[in-house]
Design brief:
The protein is an alpha/beta fold. The strands form 3 sheets. A 5-stranded parallel β-sheet has the order 2-1-3-4-5, with helices on both faces. A 4-stranded antiparallel β-sheet has the order 6-7-8-9, covered by helices on one side. The protein has a 3-stranded antiparallel β-sheet with strand order 10-12-11. The chain has 2 domains: about 120 residues, Rossmann fold, CATH 3.40.50.2300; about 100 residues, Winged helix-like DNA-binding domain superfamily/Winged helix DNA-binding domain (Arc Repressor Mutant, subunit A).
Length: about 230
């Protein structure tokens, strides 16, 4: 079954264009003119991805993202006309997987959607493989991760970044490498996106009681040992 994408934007023209482009790529799509409409729809149907405009009436995209993350790790892409760096940083800190500033080409949005789905779907070279570092075990075929014997609840980007570290334990990555490996395309944004995900991963590893640490390599980037 084709993936289902929820798209929310209070501009009907933009919403219709985005829906058409998404459906043209053989995805299923549902359009919503407000965050509240999308939130109610998620109580009845579970999408495979959510595309959110930040500035919407009633409940804005940032607030809605916070609510969704309390219940689900569905991939989230933010779109915004404001283009303020603080919006991008806050959005990523709340658990969004990507961010596009308006105006943008609908083809660019589709490219970002496909990139995220490619990393979620099983890769043939990862089939049946299990990767470990410390007490963390990851099975890419199942998109499963355990730490200290407990299942970890990770967003798509959190999973991909942790997998990079676990598959390449003891190797130090700089931020540019992680942006390329995790986002899967040339990311023209602040490399604080990497720092935000590392911060979230460290918090989740601590909460699970894991012994694995993502260590800072000062002046370079990050690595794990194990």
């Amino acid at each position: 079954m084709n993936e289902l994408i929820f798209v929310a934007d209070d501009d009907p023209n933009i919403l219709n264009i985005l829906i058409k482009y998404v459906e043209k790529e053989n995805f299923r799509a549902r359009g919503f003119s407000s965050g509240l409409e999308l939130e109610k729809a998620m109580e009845r149907e579970k999408p495979d991805m959510v595309v959110l405009d930040i500035m919407m009436p009633g409940k804005d995209g940032l607030e809605l993202c916070r609510t969704i993350r309390q219940k689900s790790n569905v991939p989230i892409i933010f779109i915004s006309a404001r283009g303020e760096e603080v919006d991008k940083i806050v959005g990523l800190e709340l658990g969004a997987d990507d961010y596009l500033s308006k105006p943008f080409s609908p083809r660019e949005l589709v490219a970002r959607i496909k990139s995220i789905f490619r990393r979620i779907h099983v890769k043939t070279d990862d089939k049946a493989e299990t990767y470990t570092a410390g007490d963390v075990e990851m099975v890419p075929e199942e998109r499963r991760c355990t730490a200290n014997g407990k299942e970890m609840d990770l967003t798509a980007k959190e999973y991909d970044m942790l997998l990079c570290f676990v598959k390449n334990k003891n190797r130090a990555f700089n931020r540019e490498e992680l942006l390329s490996l995790v986002w899967g395309y040339d990311y023209f944004g602040d490399d604080r996106a990497v720092d935000d995900i590392v911060k979230r991963l460290r918090k989740k590893l601590r909460e699970s009681g894991s012994i694995l640490e993502i260590k800072t390599v000062w002046g370079f980037g990050y690595k794990v040992e194990g």
